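thread: overnight batch results

M.L. [08:02]
morning all. the overnight job finished for the chain we discussed friday. pasting input first so we're all looking at the same thing
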Amino acid sequence: MPRHSLCFWSVALCAALLVGCGRAASDDSVAGAAAPAGGAITLWTDSTELFMEHPALIVGAPDKFAVHLTDLTDFAPLLSGTITLRFVPRGGGEPLEVVQAEPSRPGIYGPSPVFTRPGVYDLTITVESPQARDVIEVPGLTVYVSAGEAPTEEDGVDGGIAFLKEQQWKTPGFATAFAMTGRVTESFEATGELLPAAGRMARISAPVAGIVEASGLEGAPAPGQRVARGQVLAILTPALGDGGSPYAAARAELREAEAEQTRAERLYAAEAVPARRLQEAETRLRAAREALAAFGGAEAARSDGRIALRSPLGGIVASRTLAPGSRVDAGTELFTVVDPTTLWLEASVPAAEAARVTPRSTASFRVPGSDSVWRTRTLVALGGVIDSLSRTVPAIYEVPNPAGTLKVGMNAQVYVGTGRELEGVVIPASAILDDDGRTIVYIQADGERFEKRAVVLAGMDGRMALVRSGVAPGERVVIGAAYQVRLASLSTSVPEHGHEH
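M.L. [08:03]
and the structure it wrote out:
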């Protein structure tokens, strides 16, 4: 079986863990003395995470191990399969082998090897499961002659945020990844706002003063509902007097112009009138249509003299400011419709950084309430004048939004790319969180212990982030369900070690 290379391993002496996983101190220890120290080992291969706890290893004692195995393809516990623990003494001699056919609980195996000789052993764990096949090497386990020779526990060695394996396995989306060395496009931070793209927002106003028909509002869309292009939004009855007369006169003029044009065509065909007469009729008809277009055009006109207000584009109703039976003045805004499938992100670029933005620059951004990182498509425009008060220049980027997840008016934290690539410590962008204005990540220090770290970013490309400080290569960061780790960090209670081994 091919062996996977080990990516990282750590050994921690954890007295609190031994309360649940260890055994009582042997009779050789003096009453009231500190208990022999066990260990906790965290190891990642290409496909499996091992978190193994064990008491102090003493000759002749049944040392029960707690072997936690996680499938890194979906961060779920191993539900079935056999593991073989093979302890090979470094000084030579017969290896000790222990086999457990099935986990005692999902993801947890509890083998109990009994050592007959002291010394240093190298452990090989072979995993044979439908979920994973792996070989994990754990070097340097020390077995002592008696509990009196084993090192003792020290208070305060444990710390950080406790998030047990059982909690991780039950948390949807929980995942971690290694920090690595790589290259990411350099960027700087700016504030921004999402706006409707040009030609993708329409304000529908009353073309004349009139009364909003109650019957026309029965099926009118409410804010948030989708409408199609040309869909009737409301029916308006023009008011009498100055507000209504121009509309009625325009409709009458159009009817007369149409009749005149038809008559002129017939007479011209019969050679009863000159071509000039037909040209005059056609000119009058064009002028009548243009005059009616000011009130919504022929599509808005109804045979009963009322005006149908239609949406000029397909999209989402952003606002509706009218009530059935209410009187509105000419020019009153009644509906706003936005097509959200493409938005504009207007970033306020600091004056000191404006020269670093080029036509090839791209940007990524985050919005409040979401850990997702969004990527812009193209730079639409870069302002040429710096605002005297904010000392910023606007940079407008096009943002694809086919699912409509992003909303017009959202504020954004923008990472504006300069086009220059930098090399350094790279982590997935999903690991980056905002903590009251500070940029942070959560580090998995070992299997069940996490740390919050403040980081300084040097660049982000929408998928990966370059960290200037705060994370070292080989450390493992939380990239999924980090919010649950954050909640665990805010808990005032210390979770009990919940394993039943």
